[in-house]
Amino acid sequence: MSQIVDDDRLLGERLQHLRTERRWSLTELAEESGVSRAMINRVERGVSSPTATILGRLSGAFGMTISQLLDEGAAGQRPESGSPDDATGVQRGATADHWTDPDTGYRRRPVSSADFPVDVTEVVLPAGAHVTYPASAYAFLRHCIWVVDGELGLVVGDEPVRLAAGDRIELGDPAEVTYRNDSADPCRYVVVVARGVRGRE
C-alpha cells in the first residue's frame, strides 16, 4: 500500500471516529463544516484526499487545529518509543511526517510533537499557489506566522498583507485567511499555534 493511500485511510478513520464520538451524522458534520456530505463520506472511506481548505473546515468544526487532526490521524504510523532518538528527544528531519495538499502542492510538516503545548508547523507554499482557511479554523487559537524564505501574501478578512523573509505577524480575531505566493519561487514559513485561547493567530 502506498504512503499516500495509507495516510488517507488513517485520516478517514480519524474523521469517522471524531464524528461518531460526537454522535454527529454526515449531514450534521456537513452543516457544521460547510463541506459536502459526499466529500466527507469519500474522505472517511479513504478514497479521496482532502485539500488544505477542506481540512481547515473540518478541523474548525471539531474545534481542533489542523495539526491535531493530521497528527493524531497518523499516530498509528509513528515508531514506538524506546529508540535512542526518543530517549534524547531528538526528532530527525529526514523521517518527519508531512502532508501535501493534492490540489496546490502546499506542504506542511510538524516541527513540534503532538503532546507539546503549542503547535509548530513548517509550511512550504509553491510558487503561484494559494490556500484559503475559514474563520472557524482560527477560533479559540492564537497564531503567529513567521516567513523564513520567500514572500508571503495574506488576505485576512478583506485586508491584504505582504510579508518578506524575516517578517512575522500575529493574527487577530477569527477571520477567513488566504495565504498566497504570487512570486516565482517557493515560500517557506513557520506557523506557531497556541491552543485553547480565543483571539490571535
Q: What is the CATH homology-level superfamily of the largest domain?
A: Jelly Rolls
Question: How many whole angstroms does the radius of gyration measure?
Answer: 17 Å
> What is the domain tally?
2
**CA distance, first residue to last residue:** 37 Å
Mean pLDDT across all residues, rounded? Answer: 83
- The residue ranges in which pLDDT falls below 50 over 5 or more consecutive positions are 1-5, 73-84, 197-201
**CATH class placement of the largest domain:** Mainly Beta
CATH topology of the largest domain: Jelly Rolls
- Placed side by side, the strands forming the largest sheet appear as 1-2-3-10-5-8
Number of helices: 6
Q: What structural category arises from helix and sheet content?
A: alpha+beta
What's the architecture of the largest domain, going by CATH? Sandwich
Spell out the blueprint of helices and strands.
Elements (H helix, E strand, L loop, with lengths): L2 H19 L4 H8 L3 H8 L7 H11 L3 H8 L10 H5 L10 E2 L6 E4 L7 E8 L4 E4 L7 E9 L1 E6 L2 E6 L3 E3 L6 E4 L6 E9 L6
Describe the model:
The chain is an alpha+beta fold and 201 residues long. It folds into 2 domains: 3-76, Orthogonal Bundle (434 Repressor (Amino-terminal Domain)), CATH 1.10.260.40; 99-195, Jelly Rolls (Sandwich). 29% of the residues lie in helices and 27% in strands. The protein is built from 6 helices and 10 strands, in the order H-H-H-H-H-H-E-E-E-E-E-E-E-E-E-E. It has helices at 3-21, 26-33, 37-44, 52-62, 66-73, 84-88; strands at residues 99-100, 107-110, 118-125, 130-133, 141-149, 151-156, 159-164, 168-170, 177-180, 187-195. It has a 6-stranded antiparallel beta sheet with strand order 1-2-3-10-5-8, with helices on one face. A hairpin with a 6-residue loop joins strand 1 (99-100) and strand 2 (107-110). Helix 1 (3-21) packs across helix 5. The longest helix has 19 residues, at 3-21. The N and C termini lie far apart (37 Å).
